[in-house]
Amino acid sequence: MDRKTLITVSILVILPILSILYKLNIAELSLLPVEVDDTVNLQVVILPKENVAVSEVNFPIPKQFIQSRVLKSNTKVEDLDFRLQKKQYGHLGIWEGEDWNSSIGYYAKIKILPYTHSNPEPELQQTNGKQLSKEPYYLSLKNFSPEEIRLGKKLFEQIHPYDKDNVAAAKQIFYFISEEVLNTTKDITLEDTIRLNNGSAYTQAILFSLLCRMKGIQARTVAGFDLSKQNSKDNKAKLSFWNEIRIHGKWYFVSTYKNIFAGTVNGYLPLWKSVEEKRSLGEEPATFRYTAYITKSNVNRYNFKEYSEEVASSNSFLRYYSLYSLPTPLQNLFRLVILIPIGALVLSVARNMVGIPTFGIFTPILLAMFFYETNLIFGICFFLLMIGLGFFERYALDKYYLLAVPRLSILLTITVITLILFSVLNEEISFFNQMSVTLFPIVITTIFVERFSIMIIEEGILHTFVTLGGTLLIALISYMIFFFGSLQILFFTHPELLFIVIAIQILLGQYKGYRVSELFRFKEIFKS
């Protein structure tokens, strides 16, 4: 490497590093937007137990809560009738039918939001009459047995939270259960929990709700999934239980089992916000068994709004010249366009160092954008179909001895007709999901098919198909890079990193050694 190249490459590498250090230390910006990983796929499979005749099964269905947004859902129903019972504190799916012997259940894609209310201010105790008229259910004891109420009152007198405001009383009840009641994973009743001071997450939550209601504090037991307790091997999850208490009109998260009182927590997916109403949720059903699978969705979402506000509020010139200052449509465009140089870098390595042949310089990159803008399976199928049609169209039109421009116009028309047929059939039969039609297929395939036909005539079928395979390979690699969310956000947040890409291209441009393909091509010479 000569001195001039070394200086140029060094400058191109040092400038982005200095720019990022300026952003971090002087402009006091974050390195990247905060990654949002809050969308999960929930699948619940329900099966009948052996030798049990079942005519009705019910299980909670995801509902829109403050902490969960159902983005997509689907209920699996075989020969059973399905109905949805909607209540304020949850949705209950009810399957009914005879001879049920196959699995049923549902799938849902859910965005999970955190419990944000924390550290409530002291609340003066109101009369029970006012509270009952305001929201009677969450103070009611009607779903507790007489024995549970008797034991609960006896325990309540031991705790003695009479002379405290509601927040202090709730804390006293919370500390008593979390410190005096030992955690257990065994099945246990609420009565045994009070007697033995042993309790599962379910019985502890029910006990907390019972004691709070006796004090006049609105409380409820929540059933749902705790993502931190999920089995990492098979993504299975069991129902977890926690509480919510109402102070100053807001619901606060409480878990005596995990020792959390009115804290900000994330990763909790509520399904049913009144276990007191459906006590069977805390017990093993006698007629069926359920299996829940929870996996994180590959969303690659980042909190762009928060980072844009951070850039706008900085005392740096970057608030005027950052890509985050652009309108949202332009930002979405540049998040894709800014990775094109990375695709070109992959192409340079593939051609100059590996020796993979391709149709032209930009064709694989444009083809990758075609796949990205439409659908990968649709893109490959449409592309290969157009190559076949264009190949036969070329030989058919050769008999008419047409000039180049009319021949290309005919090929363009055939491409448009084929795209219309693809779109209409897909609308009726739904071959391809999330397919969007853009101008890329028309432009790319028309030009590519013409070059493909010419290359077959000039260089033969074998070499042409090898080049086609290399083009598709580089296009697929570039396509995967376009979906690499972290890399996309890194270059969008720090576009000066493109100078490092230029530096690498300069080094690649000066490479004059053997390509990998040539080592195999001339292996007999190397042996001799």
From TrEMBL:
The name this protein goes by in its record: Transglutaminase
Transmembrane segments: 6-24, 333-350, 370-392, 404-425, 431-449, 461-483, 489-508
Phosphoprotein as UniProt keyword: no
InterPro entries: 7TM_transglut, Papain-like_cys_pep_sf, Transglutaminase-like
Residues annotated as domain Transglutaminase-like: 162-254
Domain annotation 7 transmembrane helices usually fused to an inactive transglutaminase: ranges: 309-525
Species the sequence originates in: Leptospira soteropolitanensis
Superkingdom per UniProt: Bacteria
Record keywords, A-Z: Membrane, Transmembrane, Transmembrane helix
Transmembrane helix recorded as keyword: yes
